[in-house]
Known about the structure:
Blueprint: H1 25-36, H2 49-53, E1 62-72, H3 75-86, H4 91-105, E2 115-122, E3 127-133, H5 156-160, H6 171-182, H7 187-200, E4 202-203, H8 206-214, H9 216-220, H10 223-229, E5 241-242, H11 245-257, H12 260-263, H13 266-276, H14 295-299, E6 304-306, E7 309-313, E8 316-320, H15 327-338, H16 348-369, H17 380-383, H18 386-393, E9 437-443, E10 448-454, E11 507-511, E12 514-520, H19 526-539, H20 545-550, E13 554-555, E14 562-564, H21 566-569, H22 572-580, E15 584-586, E16 594-599, E17 603-608, E18 617-623
Parallel strand pairs: 14-15
Antiparallel strand pairs: 1-9, 1-17, 1-18, 2-3, 2-10, 3-6, 4-5, 7-8, 8-11, 9-10, 11-12, 12-16, 13-14, 16-17
Helix pairs in contact: 1-3, 1-7, 3-4, 4-7, 7-11, 15-16, 15-18, 15-19, 16-22
Amino acid sequence: MGPAARPAAPSTTSGAAPPRRRVPAMAAAAALAAVLGIAPAGAAQTGPADTARHDTPAKTPVAQGYGGAVSSVDPDASAAGIEVLRRGGNAVDAAVATAAALGVTEPYSAGVGGGGYLVYYDARTHKVHTLDGRETAPLSADEKLFLGEDGKPLPFADAVTSGLSVGTPGTPATWEDALDTWGTRSLGQVLKPAEQLARDGFTVDATFRQQTADNEARFKDFPASAELFLPGGKLPVVGSTFTNPDLARTYALLAKKGTGAVYKGELARDIVDTVRKPPVDPKAERTVHPGDLTARDLREYRTKQQAPTRTGYRGLDVYSMAPSSSGGTSVAEGLNILERTDLSKLSNRDYLHRYIEASRIAFADRGRWVGDPAAEDVPTKGLTSQRFADSRACLIKPDAVLKSPVKPGDPTRPGKPGSCDTRGHAAPTTYEGENTTHLTTADKWGNVVAYTLTIEQTGGSGITVPDRGFLLNNELTDFSFAPADPAVHDPNLPGPGKRPRSSMSPTIVLDDNKPVLALGSPGGATIITTVLQTMLNHLDRGMPLVDAIAAPRASQRNAAQTELEPGLWNGAERAELEALGHSFKQNPEIGAATGVQRLPGGKWLAAAETQRRGGGSAMVVRPG
Length: 624
């Protein structure tokens, strides 16, 4: 076992990334201050929306100071969270405000029509809590949900752009339940900045235009999507202002009536109608399968407050999301497999080799064992145990590569340490859309939130709820369409009211019951490897958090080839690893992490990407 690790000092060399988008953050801050009945700091120079847009803080990937911190992909979203902290709100209030603003500026990644997972550290009790806000399948769903009349799985593209793929949204319930349980502000108060942002608009950048272009063919087939995202029938122009008055009215409705409007009221009816009778352009040639979502499905939706996963690593306590997400169990297993190796003393080649092999093994066990625990017997305790990891770790050889797919072990009956346990049949990793988003917040009292939310792939189902301003998710495509092996039980098949397996891994690390860091990432199944590698970079390899996030990534998910970002693909390590037997393919971008770190003296450091997705936005209340 390696020496006890502690977080490295913050980087002093990382420069600010160029701003990706200039948005009216100060206008949003002023709106929040107005609803709270207070004057915002620095508001004296803030004029109309067009003027306020020029006062938007520059986008920077790292910031440190006092009073709390927020890190997200977008400067306006981070600014909304910071303003909540500045006005006395806590980390939960800030997280919801940030998430709602992301629903405006990152509508292809997250929003009212999606779901997610929230992990919260309570500084008063020193306890970690979680909310499972994952979408659920209709109560009528069964294992044949994505099978055609011939009994064969539907083409993936047909399943995605359909009512079949839409699960009951969990994001609105997550916001309200988090605020009611741990927050200090009302839903209406924290939604106000996002409401004004949707009304006043933000400036389109190249990333937003490209994501729209990637969805242009789909959006054109749905009049509501085309009207919103293709104004005048054309792609939004870089530098133009993009407004979403329908979403502003939706946020105003939620502020007035609460999220019951989504699950029981008029908005619920609109969601159900849209899923059951997708509003397709009569000229479209696309076949859009209807879904079977009902008013009862929405009415009976509940988030789940449940215990987090926990594992020890280098004297620290690592908490994350338990199933229905596989993130917490898989990150924990990867850490436990590597626990008995001093990674700080290895060469880059040997470090990456062991990290890749540990990821390969963890994904083998994830595929066999993890599903919705309400419908499946998921051995969470076994998967996160050191004994099980020790029975699997000896599969890793210093001079050879495991052949994928690796067979799973059995955490319900783990072998002895060194037994190199493998049992049963290997299960392939199912596809998960990568365009999720993650945010991290902390406050002056020491509370911390790591929150990952999504509508699944870029643009979700492609279907906008008419006159409501948000896209519906395609989350149910995270289910296995059919068993990988008919002779082996697949825990991730569709079922009534079932939550599809996720890889989201919002993580909080404690040292002696106090937060050390919190982090998470989007990226589908690569979320797990992104969080694991970032933690290893920081805790074992001594990288400052912003540099640990920026470092080039590798992602192995029990496949024949490991994905590499260009920084590793073009580096010396690739040839060295190939000589061991590794096989690679290039991925231009893996994940987009954000995190916060506790520093001595009540200081916080916020860190985000320096380049990926145009760079992230890290902010603190009082820089210092």
